[in-house]
C-alpha cells in the first residue's frame, strides 16, 4: 500500500509525548479491533501502549448493527473509553477509513486528552457530513462496481435499509487487493454489516479542538477513500 505522510507534526510527538505513548486505534466500517493486529504488534514491540476498540455493532461488540440508530450511538465505545482516561493522560488517536469520522468527533469532545490525531486513508471532515461537498470528499463512491453492497432491513422491507456490507465477491477487489490471500480470507470471515447511521454522522464543534495536531497518511492505492478524495480533504 503506497503511503505518504503529509504532516510534519509526527516528528514532534516523540518530544511532546511520554516515553511510552498510548495509541488508540479506531477501525473503519465492517471491521473491528481485530484489523489492527499487525500494527498493534509493531507498536507494542516498540514499547508503546495500544488500545484497539470495537465500535458499536462491530468486531465482537454484540449489538445488532441494524439497531444502531445514530452515529453517536455507534461511536459510544470510543467516547466511553476517552471519558474513562485520567485527566492528565493524553493519547494518540488513529483512525482508518470511516474511523476518521469517529476520531474527529473525539477531537471535538476531548481535545485536552488527545496529543494528536492520525488519519490513515481516513475521512477527515471538520464536522462530518453537513453538505454535498462533504459527501463527495469523504464518503466512498463504489458505483464503478455496480451494486456493491448487500443491505439489511432491520425495520422491515418496506422501510429504508439499516445496514450494509460490501458483497463477498467484491471484498478482495475493493478492500484487500494488496493483501495476502490468507489475510483477506481471514478478514472475510470477520467482517460484519455496518450501521448506515454512520452515513449521517455530524459533530458539533468543540472548544480548543483546533489545537489538536492532525496528521494524514495517504493510502495511494485505496479503492474506498480514493487518493483524490484524500487530497481534497487535506486541502480544506
TrEMBL record:
Coiled coil ranges (UniProt) are none
Q: Gene3D superfamilies given for it?
A: alpha/beta hydrolase
Q: Which GO terms describe its molecular function?
A: methyl indole-3-acetate esterase activity; methyl jasmonate esterase activity; methyl salicylate esterase activity
Domain of life according to the entry: Eukaryota
Domain AB hydrolase-1 as annotated: residue spans? 21-154
**Any single GO BP term:** salicylic acid metabolic process
Recorded hits in Pfam families, A to Z, give: Abhydrolase_1 (PF00561)
Per its UniProt record, what InterPro entries does this chain match?
Answer: AB_hydrolase_1, AB_hydrolase_fold, MES/HNL
For this entry, the protein name equals AB hydrolase-1 domain-containing protein
Q: Which organism is it from?
A: Chenopodium quinoa
Amino acid at each position: 500500500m503506497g503511503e505518504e505522510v503529509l504532516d510534519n507534526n509526527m516528528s514532534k510527538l516523540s518530544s511532546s509525548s511520554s516515553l511510552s505513548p498510548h495509541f488508540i486505534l479506531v477501525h473503519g466500517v465492517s471491521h473491528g479491533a481485530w484489523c489492527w493486529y499487525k500494527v498493534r504488534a509493531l507498536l507494542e514491540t516498540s514499547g508503546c501502549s495500544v488500545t484497539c476498540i470495537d465500535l458499536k455493532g462491530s468486531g465482537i461488540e454484540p449489538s445488532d448493527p441494524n439497531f444502531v440508530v445514530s452515529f453517536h450511538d455507534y461511536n459510544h465505545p470510543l467516547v466511553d473509553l476517552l471519558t474513562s482516561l485520567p485527566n492528565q493522560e493524553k493519547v494518540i488517536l488513529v483512525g482508518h477509513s470511516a474511523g476518521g469520522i469517529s476520531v474527529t468527533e473525539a477531537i471535538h469532545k476531548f481535545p485536552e486528552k488527545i496529543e494528536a490525531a492520525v488519519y490513515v486513508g481516513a475521512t477527515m471532515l471538520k464536522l462530518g457530513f453537513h453538505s454535498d461537498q462533504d459527501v463527495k470528499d469523504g464518503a466512498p463512491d463504489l458505483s464503478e462496481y455496480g451494486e456493491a453492497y448487500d443491505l439489511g432491513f432491520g425495520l422491515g422491507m418496506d422501510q429504508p435499509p439499516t445496514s450494509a456490507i460490501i458483497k463477498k465477491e467484491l471484498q478482495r477487489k475493493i478492500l484487500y487487493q494488496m493483501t495476502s490471500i490468507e489475510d483477506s480470507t481471514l478478514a472475510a470471515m470477520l467482517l460484519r454489516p455496518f450501521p448506515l447511521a454512520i452515513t449521517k454522522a455530524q459533530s458539533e464543534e468543540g472548544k480548543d479542538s483546533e489545537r489538536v495536531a492532525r496528521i494524514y497518511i495517504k493510502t495511494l492505492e485505496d479503492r474506498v477513500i480514493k487518493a483524490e478524495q484524500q487530497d481534497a480533504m487535506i486541502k480544506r
